[in-house]
């Protein structure tokens, strides 16, 4: 059973000089979650922002904060993100050293844990965690930057993960991140995705365009 599709705009593509207003505009435009990309310049070759900015953003949106940690190690910073207002916290298992401990830590803080698979990371990295996480995030670009092209080979991975999640019988969301557009969205949904991150496609055209952008990604034009 595939859940209703949720759209999670990534504020990586927002105007960083006006992040609060951008978060509010995207909330009013009908987004389901706000996706926050946290990069450390070490695990990925780019730097974004940390818990201070997450905390500053919190009053600007009522939506769940879908926090994507591209930092290594992640564990020492997870309590600060939880405290700042993150609702869902996802991490890359390669950030190490003990992915299951990271899941336990996120759960102990009352937050929803997710595991992220980069394009070159096999499904095996999440199999032993599937009974404990609330979300699996499949990256359809390599982590680090918005505006990259969708990597086709991940469609098969999405389909295989959908089958594994269905077999588990657990309520685990299958989220896709990278190169999601109104053209690629129907294809990842057909493969079994139920939650779509969109940076460039969600924020293009400025606040007046956000509702239309979200509708186009949902497939309602
Ligand atoms: C990339 C980030 C993505 C990024 C997606 O490392 O995890 O969330 O914002 O951007 P688009 O939708 O432009 O590919
Ligand atoms: Zn992301």
TrEMBL record:
<feature type="binding site">
    <location>
        <position position="177"/>
    </location>
    <ligand>
        <name>a divalent metal cation</name>
    </ligand>
</feature>
<comment type="similarity">
    <text>Belongs to the ribulose-phosphate 3-epimerase family.</text>
</comment>
<dbReference type="Pfam" id="PF00834">
    <property type="entry name" value="Ribul_P_3_epim"/>
</dbReference>
<dbReference type="GO" id="GO:0019323">
    <property type="term" value="P:pentose catabolic process"/>
</dbReference>
<feature type="binding site">
    <location>
        <position position="10"/>
    </location>
    <ligand>
        <name>substrate</name>
    </ligand>
</feature>
<dbReference type="GO" id="GO:0006098">
    <property type="term" value="P:pentose-phosphate shunt"/>
</dbReference>
<feature type="binding site">
    <location>
        <position position="179"/>
    </location>
    <ligand>
        <name>substrate</name>
    </ligand>
</feature>
<dbReference type="GO" id="GO:0004750">
    <property type="term" value="F:D-ribulose-phosphate 3-epimerase activity"/>
</dbReference>
<feature type="binding site">
    <location>
        <position position="68"/>
    </location>
    <ligand>
        <name>a divalent metal cation</name>
    </ligand>
</feature>
<feature type="binding site">
    <location>
        <position position="68"/>
    </location>
    <ligand>
        <name>substrate</name>
    </ligand>
</feature>
<feature type="active site" description="Proton donor">
    <location>
        <position position="177"/>
    </location>
</feature>
<dbReference type="InterPro" id="IPR026019">
    <property type="entry name" value="Ribul_P_3_epim"/>
</dbReference>
<protein>
    <recommendedName>
        <fullName>Ribulose-phosphate 3-epimerase</fullName>
        <ecNumber>5.1.3.1</ecNumber>
    </recommendedName>
</protein>
<keyword id="KW-0862">Zinc</keyword>
<keyword id="KW-0479">Metal-binding</keyword>
<dbReference type="InterPro" id="IPR000056">
    <property type="entry name" value="Ribul_P_3_epim-like"/>
</dbReference>
<keyword id="KW-0119">Carbohydrate metabolism</keyword>
<dbReference type="InterPro" id="IPR013785">
    <property type="entry name" value="Aldolase_TIM"/>
</dbReference>
<keyword id="KW-0170">Cobalt</keyword>
<comment type="pathway">
    <text>Carbohydrate degradation.</text>
</comment>
<feature type="binding site">
    <location>
        <position position="37"/>
    </location>
    <ligand>
        <name>a divalent metal cation</name>
    </ligand>
</feature>
<keyword id="KW-0413">Isomerase</keyword>
<feature type="binding site">
    <location>
        <position position="35"/>
    </location>
    <ligand>
        <name>a divalent metal cation</name>
    </ligand>
</feature>
<keyword id="KW-0464">Manganese</keyword>
<feature type="binding site">
    <location>
        <begin position="144"/>
        <end position="147"/>
    </location>
    <ligand>
        <name>substrate</name>
    </ligand>
</feature>
<feature type="binding site">
    <location>
        <begin position="177"/>
        <end position="179"/>
    </location>
    <ligand>
        <name>substrate</name>
    </ligand>
</feature>
<comment type="function">
    <text>Catalyzes the reversible epimerization of D-ribulose 5-phosphate to D-xylulose 5-phosphate.</text>
</comment>
<feature type="binding site">
    <location>
        <begin position="199"/>
        <end position="200"/>
    </location>
    <ligand>
        <name>substrate</name>
    </ligand>
</feature>
<dbReference type="GO" id="GO:0005737">
    <property type="term" value="C:cytoplasm"/>
</dbReference>
<dbReference type="InterPro" id="IPR011060">
    <property type="entry name" value="RibuloseP-bd_barrel"/>
</dbReference>
<feature type="active site" description="Proton acceptor">
    <location>
        <position position="37"/>
    </location>
</feature>
<dbReference type="GO" id="GO:0046872">
    <property type="term" value="F:metal ion binding"/>
</dbReference>
């Amino acid at each position: 059973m595939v859940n209703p599709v949720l759209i999670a705009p990534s504020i990586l593509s927002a105007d960083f000089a006006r992040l609060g207003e951008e978060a509010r505009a995207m909330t009013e435009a009908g987004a389901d979650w706000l996706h926050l990309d946290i990069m450390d310049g070490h695990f990925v070759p780019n730097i974004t922002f940390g818990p201070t900015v997450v905390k500053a953003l919190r009053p600007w949106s009522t939506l769940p904060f879908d926090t994507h940690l591209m930092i290594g190690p992640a564990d020492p910073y997870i309590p600060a993100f939880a405290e700042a207002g993150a609702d869902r916290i996802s991490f890359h298992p390669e950030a190490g050293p003990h992915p299951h401990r990271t899941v336990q830590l996120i759960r102990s803080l009352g937050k929803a844990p997710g595991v992220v698979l980069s394009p070159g990371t096999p499904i095996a990295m999440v199999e032993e965690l599937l009974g404990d996480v609330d979300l699996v995030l499949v990256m359809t670009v390599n982590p680090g930057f918005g505006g990259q092209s969708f990597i086709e080979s991940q469609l098969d991975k999405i389909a295989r993960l959908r089958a594994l999640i269905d077999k588990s019988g657990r309520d685990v969301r299958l989220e896709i991140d990278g190169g999601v557009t109104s053209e690629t969205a129907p294809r990842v949904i057909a493969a079994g995705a139920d939650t779509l991150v969109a940076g460039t496609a969600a924020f293009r055209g400025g606040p007046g365009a956000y509702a239309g952008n979200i509708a186009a990604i949902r497939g309602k034009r």
